[in-house]
Design brief:
heterodimer; A: about 170 residues; mainly alpha; two-stranded antiparallel ribbon; 6 helices; 2 strands; B: about 140 residues; 7 helices; globular
Chain lengths: ~170, ~140
């Protein structure tokens, strides 16, 4: 008699949760974009020697591109509105958090620009890279430990990446 | 010392931004959330640029320089779309830690385009980044 065994779904690939792989790949894609842009920025700084205006031009062009994508494709989720057409409170709160994130990112860019202006890159870049360690602390404090599961492996991994990044920058500058 | 303080201040601002994104993305979706993020960041930096550098620097700049920055912005801030998609799936802590691999790509580009060689310090750094990234992904 043969028995059919139920299909066994692999939940992990090389110890990495399968459902999260896309999220990590998007993270790596972000890093690739961030590493590529300085090549164009260096060329731009020759004619426009203001990193702040450079950042503003870049942000404006990207904002227009995303707004056009939003207008043409109208991707989901569709925003819920009340009968009077007013925005759902949850949507307003979400927009508020995005605006806060935008202001924080803008402030971070300005702080990094000033830091590079007054201190060597080998000092500035590794210190700015500690953002990942700060995020682990703030995420568990603000979002709660039930949302952001901070494990020793995550902390160790973040520390190794920060130290490794610092060494790469020091090596590049040597 | 002042440079270190600005650097750490910048790191804290970026990390708070990542945490705020985790709250804002789910109801809006990645594209809408990224658009709001970009518009608010553009307004913030425009105010800073006007206050610190003044408008003359921009108006006197050649079109080619503005075009280079526009291209850089499309790549760098287009990456914010990937960032939001990543935060939506793995959360801000894991995204922030994974995005630390940026200097690794910088080193790869320096070797590939500028034909720089990998010295032992860079090599050790690359190994630590790869091992650290695996720990983050498997955490």
């Amino acid at each position: 008699m043969t028995t059919e065994s139920p299909g066994i779904e692999r939940t992990h690939v090389w110890g990495i949760q399968r459902s999260r792989i896309a999220g990590y790949l998007f993270g790596v894609a972000t890093a690739a974009c961030w590493a590529t842009s300085p090549i164009l920025i260096r060329k731009g700084l020759v004619g426009l020697p203001s990193p702040l205006w450079g950042v503003t031009v870049g942000l404006t062009v990207a904002a227009v591109a995303f707004a056009m994508w939003l207008w043409i494709r109208r991707p989901g989720p569709h925003l819920r509105t009340s009968s009077g057409g007013a925005m759902d409170r949850m949507i307003k709160v979400a927009i508020g958090f995005q605006v806060l994130a935008g202001l924080a990112s803008g402030l971070g860019s300005v702080a990094r620009t000033i830091a590079i202006d007054v201190a060597p890159v080998v000092v500035v870049v590794p210190l700015v890279q500690t953002a990942s360690l700060w995020t682990i602390v703030f995420a568990s404090l603000i979002l709660g430990r039930h949302v952001e599961r901070v494990t020793p492996k995550l902390v160790l991994g973040a520390v190794l990446v920060v130290v490794g990044a610092a060494l790469v920058i020091v090596g590049l500058e040597a | 010392m002042i440079g270190a303080l600005w650097s750490i201040g910048g790191a804290i601002a970026f990390s708070l931004g990542h945490v705020a994104l985790a709250k804002g993305i789910p109801p809006l979706g990645v594209v809408r959330a990224t658009t709001v993020l970009l518009v608010s960041a553009a307004v913030a930096t425009a105010v800073a640029a006007l206050a610190i550098d003044g408008p003359t620097v921009l108006t006197a700049a050649p079109l080619a320089a503005i075009a280079w920055f526009a291209g850089a912005g499309l790549i760098h801030y287009g990456g914010w779309g990937f960032m939001n998609a990543s935060i939506q799936r793995v959360g801000p802590s894991r995204f922030s830690a994974i995005s630390g691999v940026t200097p690794l790509f910088g080193a790869v580009l320096a070797v590939a385009i500028l034909h720089e060689s990998v010295n032992p310090v860079m090599g050790l750094g690359i190994v630590l980044i790869v091992v650290g990234t695996y720990f983050i992904a498997a955490s």
